[in-house]
Amino acid sequence: MEGLIFIAVLIALVVLILVKTIVVIPQGEAAIVERLGRYTRTISGGISLLVPFIDRVRAKVDTRERVVSFPPQAVITQDNLTVAIDTVVTFQINEPARAIYGVDNYIVGVEQISVATLRDVVGGMTLEETLTSREVINRRLRGELDAATTKWGLRISRVELKAIDPPPSIQQSMEMQMKADREKRAMILTAEGRRESDIRTAEGEKQAKILAAEGEKHAAILAAEAEREATILRAEGERAARYLEAQGEAKAIQKVNAAIKSAQVTPEVLAYQYLEKLPELAQGEASTMWMIPSQFGDALEDFAKKFAQRDEAGVFRYEPVEVDKRSEDIASADDHEDWFNTQSNPEIAAAVAAANAVANKPVDDEPLQERPKQPEVEQPQAPRNLEAAPGTSAQASSELEANDAE
């Protein structure tokens, strides 16, 4: 019986020695080993062997990066307003031995240093600066914490202000201020929009008036040019018409004279035609009475004695003269082929087409710099194939030639 008890005690002692000798440290943790109360070494993830009953694990430290959120801290700003600020600190333990032996509680130390630094930084700022200077406060807190916790074996990687809560009354005032600012900006933007709209409208009206004036100017210039060209064409047409009419009358007179010569009309025929025309003289509404001079017969007798020859019976007979070759040619000529020609003069048609092209040309956007040059219209020349009428003086012929030259 005693042997069994001894064996059991021995087995228990062996198990206890094994438990005290073998230590398993998880990955991401570190253990502080002391030998007889003195720091010996730091062991990390894996299996480690200790001297039983001499070495012991003082503490285990989490070496992963940790994020710690601290409760809101009341901080007074430069303008004597109390705000509650929540901070979040991200740190990592690089030297576990310093974290155990250098400070009693590194979490509390980080919190207290954060609060002290936060009060120092925010105490020199106004509320508005505090709300708008988060990045400055974060950098300042990180720098102070990193410098203070280096001897504790900590590395501060990031510090963030999670929330900055001013008092409720201040929040209401800020909301009212923001509302007033937004209304002010809205009114300013509305006024700016109206101003810009009025300016644009005025610019548009100005541009429209300028374009309308330019259009009227173009139209007036084109109308003046068209009137000028039309006046020139009408004048040229009237001159050509008068010239052609004069030449036509001359040609008709020449034709009649040649026809009379070639027909060898006698005084009896002329007297008969004269008697036929006498009743027409009395057909006028104002012709109530007409008289024939008593010497009219004597005048005819003298005319017959001068141009006629007296025959054997004592009667004066008119003997027509022989017809010359030129009079016969003029009387028998038939040159009326082009009397009814309705084709326009090519030069006049070209001038009209040019005027229509200028009139249909759109008005440019740019202001008119100079007056557009119109194509010159050649003056229509009077036909020269008509012969001058008999009896036309040399002065009249020279005047017609001068007009043609113009």
From TrEMBL:
<keyword id="KW-0812">Transmembrane</keyword>
<feature type="compositionally biased region" description="Basic and acidic residues">
    <location>
        <begin position="362"/>
        <end position="376"/>
    </location>
</feature>
<dbReference type="InterPro" id="IPR001107">
    <property type="entry name" value="Band_7"/>
</dbReference>
<dbReference type="GO" id="GO:0098552">
    <property type="term" value="C:side of membrane"/>
</dbReference>
<dbReference type="InterPro" id="IPR050710">
    <property type="entry name" value="Band7/mec-2_domain"/>
</dbReference>
<protein>
    <submittedName>
        <fullName>Modulator of FtsH protease HflK</fullName>
    </submittedName>
</protein>
<dbReference type="GO" id="GO:0006508">
    <property type="term" value="P:proteolysis"/>
</dbReference>
<dbReference type="GO" id="GO:0008233">
    <property type="term" value="F:peptidase activity"/>
</dbReference>
<dbReference type="InterPro" id="IPR036013">
    <property type="entry name" value="Band_7/SPFH_dom_sf"/>
</dbReference>
<keyword id="KW-0378">Hydrolase</keyword>
<comment type="similarity">
    <text>Belongs to the band 7/mec-2 family.</text>
</comment>
<keyword id="KW-0472">Membrane</keyword>
<feature type="domain" description="Band 7">
    <location>
        <begin position="20"/>
        <end position="178"/>
    </location>
</feature>
<dbReference type="Pfam" id="PF01145">
    <property type="entry name" value="Band_7"/>
</dbReference>
<dbReference type="InterPro" id="IPR018080">
    <property type="entry name" value="Band_7/stomatin-like_CS"/>
</dbReference>
<dbReference type="InterPro" id="IPR001972">
    <property type="entry name" value="Stomatin_HflK_fam"/>
</dbReference>
<dbReference type="GO" id="GO:0005886">
    <property type="term" value="C:plasma membrane"/>
</dbReference>
<keyword id="KW-1133">Transmembrane helix</keyword>
<feature type="region of interest" description="Disordered">
    <location>
        <begin position="356"/>
        <end position="406"/>
    </location>
</feature>
<keyword id="KW-0645">Protease</keyword>
